[in-house]
Each structure stands twice: as C-alpha cells, then as structure tokens.
Amino acid sequence: MTADILVPMFVTVIGAATPLLYAALGELVSERAGVLNLGVEGMMLAGAVAGFATVVATGSHTLGIIAAAAAGAGMALLFAILTLSLLANQVATGLALTIFGIGLSALAGAGYIGTPIPALPKLDLPGLTGLPVIGPILFGQDVLVYLSLAATAAVAWFLARSRGGRILRACGESDIAAHSIGYHVIRIRYGAVLFGGAMAGLGGGYLSLSVTPMWIEGMTAGRGWIALALVAFASWRPGWLLIGAYLFGGVTILQLYLQGSGMLQIPAQVMNMLPYLATVILLTVIASGAGRQRLDAPACLGRPFRPPS
C-alpha cells in the first residue's frame, strides 16, 4: 500500500475508534463502581444531537462539545435516579434509556436533517503536521482525539493509583464492605454514572461534529452496544480498552477497504453483523455467574444496593 492509501486509512480508523473509546471508557468507570448501564446508545445519541444543535445555534464547537457532554450526563442522571435511588432493575432501565434516547434524539433532531456545519477543526502544528505519513496521522487530528487519549491515561491512573479510584473499585467489588467502613456507596456510584454519561455524550458529539458533521437520525448505528462489549473484552482495564477500540476501528475500516477492492467475497451484511453478535454473546456471558468470574467482572456489577439500616 502506498502512503496515499495508508494515511487516509489510518485517519479513518482513528475516526472510527474515537467515539467507541469515549463511550467504552465512561461505561468502564460506571461498571467498576458496580453499575451496569445499557443505555450507552441512547446517551450517545443525546450527545450527538445536543452538540450538533448547539453548534448550529451558536457557531461554537467548544459549546457544542460541552452541550454533548451535558446531554449525556443528563440522560445518565435519569438512569441513576431510577436505579440507585429508586432501585429499579439496571438492565431494564438501561434498555429503556436507549429506547428513550433514540426517540428523543429523532424528535429533537428532526429540524436539523440536511443542515451542514463546519467539521471540528483539525490541529495544524507547523513543522509536524506536514511530515510524511506520520504528520497527518499523529499531529493533524482534532482536539477530541487527543482528549480521548488523555482521558484514557487519566482513568487508568485514577483507578490504579489514586485513593479515589480504589474507593470506587471497592464499591464495585463489595458495596457492603465499602459502606461498613464509611464510604457513601450511592454517592460514589452517582458520580461514576454521571461521568459515564458525559463520556458517552462526547462520543456521540464526536460523530456529529467531526466524523459526519451533520445530523443523521440513529447515526450511532449500534456503537453504544459495541462499546459495552469492548468493556468486557478489555476485562475492565483502560489500556486494553484503548487497544480494543482501535482494533475494532481498524477491522471495520479494513473490511470496508477489502470489500471495495473486491478482495473479500463475504457479503457486507455478514461482516456488519459480527460486532453485534459478539456483543450479544459477551453480554450473555456477563449475565451468568460463572462467565462473570472468568471475565474478572466487578463482583457487584448490576446488583442494587440499599444501605443497611
């Protein structure tokens, strides 16, 4: 392959991986705290339409990014109230949140279909962006790409090195024990869920502001479900999550390239369904006790918590 092919391919891989990384990273923190939120798809769509509408109204990409994160966090707050305060079933509530997000985003975005906006600006570092091959790949991305990498490093450090991260993981491994030594489990889980919602909103906002700078109904196209599978694939470790997101992005773009070149004779529909089939299998394994232990899932994942009186 020549540089004329490799550079656009790698840039496209980054575009495919970044929204997955945002959504999966937020879900990882939520699940580490013991909360299983299956509403990632709905939160991403809320972030996508909120970010896009804000840019249309204000012309500011910065405000659009903030709005996307806020919309995702708002959806997550609704989920947290229902599951953490009212003790609703987390699986059912997450599925309902996805359905709600799909409908709400379609309604809110109906007036924006076909409205273009400028894409999120790419960085232009003199002397670096113009380097052959590596320049546009490493130094010519937009700010959300670099923010996703920084967020991955920050979450990895937080969970492994900080006192707050250890407390959060304790809430996911043994909520009763964490409560007994004085930690406010519900409050900590609220924070984790809100962070997960904000990150999912950023992932959706990246789609509508950078990848496809326009609003398309259902534009996440199942990426929220893939993000859920990536968390289990990575065994709840941020480093492996980064690898998994870029691996999936690479496989997606590679199969599109192979099909376009005629080198791959497998029907496109079969290739497109594989990530979702893997998601269904992984979620089934997570739901089983033995499978959860083999995947090293947090012990209290999906389990409601009521503080002992």
Automatic annotation (TrEMBL):
**What's the short name of a Pfam family annotated to this entry?**
BPD_transp_2
Asked if the keyword Transcription regulation belongs to this entry, the reply reads no
Spans traversing the lipid bilayer: 6-23, 35-57, 63-87, 94-113, 133-159, 190-209, 240-258, 270-290
The record's listing under InterPro entries reads:
ABC_transp_permease
Q: Which CDD domains does this chain map to?
A: TM_PBP1_transp_TpRbsC_like (cd06580)
Question: What is the membrane topology listed in the Swiss-Prot or TrEMBL record?
Answer: Multi-pass membrane protein
Keyword S-adenosyl-L-methionine present in the record's keywords: the answer is no
- Principal localisation: membrane
Q: Which UniProt keywords apply?
A: Cell membrane, Membrane, Transmembrane, Transmembrane helix
- Name its cellular compartments: Cell membrane
* UniProt cross-references to PANTHER family, sorted A to Z: ABC TRANSPORTER PERMEASE PROTEIN, SUGAR ABC TRANSPORTER INTEGRAL MEMBRANE PROTEIN-RELATED
This chain belongs to which protein, by name? Answer: ABC transporter permease
